[in-house]
Design goal:
This protein is an alpha/beta fold and 341 residues long. Helices cover 41% and strands 16% of the residues. It has a seven-stranded parallel β-sheet, with helices on both faces. β4, α3 and β5 form a beta-alpha-beta unit.
């Protein structure tokens, strides 16, 4: 297949790009070239160096090329997918938009999620924008037969960052560092809500099975692992891999949102604080051979080993570290004060 990825070097798209190159597909990456070195050891991708937001640059870079699949991994706003439709109508047999499982209704009426679960997230603008993108694309599909497929990933991770529930703006390393130093780490809620972690290598297998699949045109498909974990299990597994004892402090998501300048309202109340179990029957009907084979304990071990081996991935966040200490001390003081009375 001749394939164009807009982006192509993120957590999700990197694994897909690598696998497609290994399979011998003709892959074009449309981006600014900041992370294309990731593919140097593979059969080289073809790079289109352009800014997707500049129409003249895109038209010049694409020229007369026609594609079997175009996938946009970096579109977040309706105006961006509208731009894509104008550029790629008549130039691709399938356009894939990456939405988000955070678009599903919050609060959920049923923790079991299918593609038919209603979309509504009053807590996170990011999710509402994804919903608006989906609505526009499906309208264009119905009215103009634009060949769209919508993909909804949930929490997908790779070897570059340990997946967690509560962390600062600079990523998860500071939490890992706290664990290794024996310091307490914050788990939102009581840690018993259900969550699904998907390794990007498993996501890639499902995604590639949908590419060029005529039965996926006009469809919305969620891609996740079938493994369900509590947040306590997630943190305990990470501590076990690190070889340390977990010192967990449970704090309600509402309090974390109210006592922080971090955008926890969207990422917690609008996402991770909810119990979710994904029903992937539709995906397996479209891609019968798909099985998510990377258990979380296996995948996160690989991630931690990689992060510990690469200093450039160990980005400290001292402000977040101080914030954790303040929040934890404040809760401990509140408990002491209440007991005194």
């Amino acid at each position: 297949m001749r394939i164009l990825f807009i982006g192509g070097t993120g957590t999700i798209s990197t694994a897909i790009s690598k696998e497609l190159l290994e399979q011998g597909h003709e892959l074009y990456l449309l981006n600014r070239g900041t992370r294309n070195e990731l593919f140097n050891k593979y059969r080289k991708a073809k790079y289109l160096m352009a800014d997707i937001n500049k129409k003249n640059e895109i038209e010049q870079a694409i020229g007369e090329l026609q594609f079997d699949v175009v996938a946009d991994f970096i579109a977040f706003l309706p105006s961006q997918v509208e731009r894509d439709v104008k550029i790629f109508a008549g130039k691709t047999k399938q356009y894939i938009f990456i939405s988000s499982a955070s678009a599903y209704q919050k609060p959920l009426s049923d923790y079991r999620i299918t593609e038919g679960t209603p979309l509504a997230n009053p807590y996170w603008e990011y999710s509402r924008n994804k919903i608006a993108c989906e609505e526009y694309l499906m309208k264009i599909n119905r009215e103009n037969k634009f060949p769209v497929t919508i993909i909804r990933p949930s929490h997908t991770y790779d070897e570059r960052s340990v997946p967690l529930g509560v962390h600062g703006e600079k990523g998860s390393w500071q939490v890992i560092k706290r664990m290794m130093e024996g310091k307490p780490v914050i788990i939102h809620g009581d840690g018993t809500s259900l969550w699904t972690m998907t390794h990007n290598s498993d996501f890639a297998k499902a995604f590639i099975g949908i590419m060029g699949n005529i039965h996926a045109i006009g469809e919305t498909i969620q891609i996740t692992s079938d493994e369900t974990l509590t947040w306590n299990q997630i943190y305990e597994t990470i501590a076990l891999v690190l070889g340390v004892e977990l010192n967990a402090i449970h704090i309600s998501s509402e309090i974390l949102c109210k006592c922080s300048d971090y955008d926890f309202v969207g990422s917690l109340i609008g996402d991770k604080a909810n119990s979710v179990v994904f029903e992937n029957t539709k995906l397996k009907h479209l891609v019968p051979e798909f099985v998510a084979t990377k258990r979380f304990d296996e995948g996160v071990r690989e991630t931690i080993e990689n992060v510990l081996a690469h200093a450039e991935l160990q980005i400290e966040d001292l402000e977040f570290d101080k914030w954790c200490d303040r929040v934890i001390l404040s809760q401990e003081k509140m408990i002491r004060d209440i007991k005194k009375k």
